[in-house]
Specification:
This protein is α/β, with parallel strands linked by helices and 310 residues long. It has helices at residues 47-53, 80-86, 98-101, 108-115, 124-134, 140-144, 153-165, 183-199, 211-217, 235-240, 245-252, 287-291, and strands at 4-16, 19-32, 36-40, 62-70, 73-74, 91-94, 171-175, 203-208, 220-225, 228-234, 297-299, 302-304. It has 2 domains: 4-90 and 170-304, Rossmann fold; 98-168, no CATH class. It has an 8-stranded mixed beta sheet with strand order 6-7-8-3-9-10-12-11, with helices on both faces. The chain has a 4-stranded antiparallel beta sheet with strand order 2-1-4-5, covered by helices on one side. Helix 5 (124-134) crosses helix 7 and helix 7 (153-165) packs parallel to helix 8 (183-199). It starts with a strand and ends in a 6-residue tail after the last strand. Bound molecules: iron/sulfur cluster and magnesium ion. Magnesium ion (MG) is lined by residues 47-48, 176. Residues 5-251 form the ABC transporter domain. The complex is composed of two ATP-binding proteins (NikD and NikE), two transmembrane proteins (NikB and NikC) and a solute-binding protein (NikA). It is an enzyme of class 7 (translocase).
Length: 310
């Protein structure tokens, strides 16, 4: 039971002046300890919203329903005092941007001290230095005394990873850890995650639009579109032979592939299309696709939300 987080029919909407923005639509999935599950999809597909909802980190105008079970407790409905005990300690977040996630006014030592609990068995200083060494800081004492502006982008990424793993959480939710980084930095992040995967038994929920990264590290892939899972299955299978028309289009649109974009735009989350959410952009659509929402069909070892696989 402790080995996974089970998400059942999670629905997240935001109340805005323009109307109700339906960001995540009755989404069910699970992720396990010791595995990397990657959620991929375009901006606005609901990846980050789902991830942040699990730690109750969404803004006040959000309406969340459904269940996300961790040790028989629903993370979505826990009291603030209870989720605070889990956040960071049991389920940690690696946030998107090190420049906005690290406090520019505090030395690294102080920022890491803040995340370490008092009941840590090792003396805290040793724990911090050991954690920094794990992320290839050869001179952890000097790094601990530094302010974020004295560190490179890659170093800051490693600090964020160290801050997440130092309390030995069971799960980590990583929100677009390679977003906006140049090629070199991206490769550094790939290595950091590879190392975390090797050294720990943490379960990762990796939120990314970086398919090279997902392909490199994820065991399992979930493809999101308009807040729904369109396809899920083992990473290698999905990359070698994508089934869903959206997965095919999304993989083809990547810079390392043909860069052929999917025609059209993602739908308005206020006025979602009838039937299949992808039908306005789908080259294979039939009349049924505009009338009925396809369920997730089981095809071999994967699930596909498309009538072509009925
Ligand atoms: Fe395309 Fe229809 Fe499949 Fe949707 S259900 S992806 S519109 S073929
Ligand atoms: Mg996002």
């Amino acid at each position: 039971m402790n080995n996974r987080i089970d998400v059942n029919h999670v629905h997240v909407a935001f109340q805005t002046k323009e109307g109700l923005v339906k960001a995540v639509n009755h989404l069910s999935m699970s992720f396990e300890k010791g595995k990397v599950t990657a959620m991929i999809g375009e901006t606005g597909s609901g990846k980050s919203v789902l991830g942040l909802s699990l730690l109750q980190l969404l803004p006040d105008n959000s309406l969340v329903s459904g269940e996300a079970f961790y040790e028989n407790q629903n993370l979505l409905t826990m009291k603030a005092s209870e989720i605070r005990k889990i956040r960071g300690r049991k389920i940690a977040l690696i946030p998107q941007n090190p420049d906005t996630s690290l406090n520019p006014l505090l030395k690294i030592k102080r920022q890491l001290l803040e995340v370490v609990t008092g009941n840590h068995r090792q003396p805290i200083k040793t724990a911090i230095f050991n954690e920094l060494k794990r992320y290839h800081f050869t001179d952890p004492e000097r790094v601990a005394e530094a302010y974020p502006f004295q560190l490179s982008g890659g170093m800051k990424q490693r600090i964020l990873a160290a801050a997440a793993t130092i309390r030995q959480p069971e799960f980590i939710i990583a929100d677009e850890p390679t977003k906006g980084l140049d090629v070199l930095l991206r490769h550094e992040v790939y290595q950091i995650f590879q190392q975390m995967k090797q050294d720990t038994h943490i379960g990762f929920l990796l939120i990314t639009h970086d398919l090279i990264f997902a392909n490199h590290i994820a065991d399992h892939l979930l493809v999101l579109y308009a807040g729904e899972i369109m396809e899920s299955g083992p990473t290698q299978d999905l990359f070698t032979e994508p089934s869903h028309p959206y997965t095919k289009g999304f993989i083809e649109a990547q810079p390392y592939k043909s860069l052929t974009p999917i025609p059209g735009m993602p739908p308005s989350l206020i006025h979602l299309p009838t039937g299949c959410a992808f039908h306005p952009r789908c080259p294979y659509k039939k009349t049924l696709c505009q009338q009925e929402k396809p369920p997730l069909f089981s095809v071999n070892n994967r699930k596909v939300r498309c009538f072509l696989y009925a």
